[in-house]
Write a structure and sequence with these properties.
With about 375 residues, the protein is an alpha+beta fold. It has three domains: about 5-150, Orthogonal Bundle (Globin-like), CATH 1.10.490; about 155-295, no CATH class; about 295-375, Orthogonal Bundle (Arc Repressor Mutant, subunit A), CATH 1.10.10.2840. It contains 17 helices and six strands. Strands 1, 2, 3, 4, 5 and 6 form a six-stranded mixed sheet that branches.
Length: about 375
């Protein structure tokens, strides 16, 4: 084995990796694996990628020189984390971006290593994981400090009470005093809600949360680019005073012991609706199949693949459109043929072809349910106002 230092041996592999290739692969990984990344403005998305690229370049310099980065070397990283915190990007998404950057870096190293560089690959893995851990720590500390500055004392108190009420455990005297100070009645059940306003900055969401709190009917806080909370009275879309380009997911009054799960489900439903362009009010009780699938993404992915993969071939695009039309028409064949502007015999022929290709039986309630669950997750529906 070479007498060169581990840093130098790994650096010789890294030197073969084109930086542009790393940037392209990182941007692709972020776009496909971090939903919040796609919601950022284009300039912010570029800054996220560039920030992770800078960290990998800093790591490559460390490998080349053997000199451990100083605290000052991480100042650009701290500014990057503060900018993301001010945009409302969640810390878990930032840490996932760093992890993805490390994964892409590792895949590039493996790709550009030579057959005889097995030991160098083992060294690279250890050095890379040490560095990813280091920058994750810097980002987490900086982000949390910045969010502490950005979040008002009022919202911090509200968030504390919101979490306590959602836990189901008895409130202690400090909790009761806080509830009284915030004008929140202590009761056994509350209706959870989640609000998203696509394209609007976190500051706009924070202002809405403050306005809802000021009206004395809700506990509302922000989570980046959404508002979540509990209400003990009716909450209408018009009360938000934000126009029609808003989606509000809301559940029926829920016992405190079940509120944490209900809040999580509403966030999943609201983010699902954001992706599909829904607007208006979405009631959780009307979307239980979607919530079931959203809570089990791996099962949902397997169901979609098992039911629809056979129609993914471009030559079956017309059949896929036909199946989508059938779903939108709630399996009403007359309405489907009218929507597609085709004769009912043509529709019948296409549906037979779908059955032949997928192995599904469109007369079977079980298969229709599978189709609904698999396709309904991607259906372009609009919530009612």
């Amino acid at each position: 084995m070479s007498r060169r230092s581990p840093h130098a041996r790994v650096a010789s592999i890294v030197a073969r990796i084109p930086r542009a290739e790393a940037g392209r692969e990182m941007a692709g990984a972020f776009g496909s694996e971090i939903a919040a990344f796609e919601r950022l403005p284009a300039g912010s998305r570029d800054d996220v990628v560039e920030g992770v690229e800078r960290n990998l370049q800093r790591w490559w310099r460390w490998l080349s020189t053997g000199a451990t980065p100083t605290e000052g070397d991480f100042d650009p990283l701290r500014e990057w984390a503060r900018a993301r915190a001010s945009e409302g990007v969640r810390l878990e998404d930032l840490l996932r971006a760093i992890w993805l950057g490390g994964r892409v870096g590792w895949e590039l190293i493996r790709r550009h290593a030579r057959a005889e560089e097995t030991e160098e690959l083992l060294e690279a893995a250890g050095l890379l994981m040490r560095y990813v851990d280091q920058i994750s720590t810097v980002v987490a500390h900086t982000y949390l400090a910045e969010r502490e500055v950005l979040v008002s004392e009022e919202e911090r108190r509200t968030r504390s009470l919101l979490d306590r009420l959602s836990g189901g455990e008895p409130l202690d005297p400090a909790d009761l005093e806080l509830a009284q100070r915030l004008g929140v009645p202590v009761q056994p059940a509350y209706a959870p809600f989640a609000i998203v306003m696509p394209g609007r900055p976190p500051g706009r969401h924070a202002a809405l949360a403050a306005r809802l709190r000021g009206r004395g009917l809700t506990l509302a806080v922000t989570e980046g680019d959404r508002v979540v909370g509990l209400t003990w009275g009716p909450l209408e879309l018009a009360e938000l005073d934000e126009g029609p380009d808003v989606l509000m997911a809301i559940a029926e009054p829920t016992a405190r012991g079940e509120l944490a799960d209900a809040r999580d489900e509403l966030v999943l439903l609201a983010e699902h609706g954001r992706r599909l362009g829904w607007r208006g009010v979405v009631e959780a009780k009307d979307h239980l199949p979607e919530i079931l699938m959203l809570r089990s993404p791996a099962v949902a992915a397997r169901l979609r693949a098992g039911v629809l993969a056979a129609l993914d071939d471009p030559e079956h695009a017309e059949l896929r459109r036909t199946l989508d039309a059938l779903l939108r028409a709630r399996f009403d064949r007359a309405a489907s043929s009218a929507a597609l502007h085709i004769h009912r015999n043509t529709l019948a022929y296409r549906l037979r072809r779908i059955e032949e290709i997928t192995g599904l039986d469109l007369a079977s309630p079980r298969d229709l349910a599978r189709i609904y669950l698999a396709s309904g997750m991607d259906a372009d529906e609009t919530a009612g106002a």
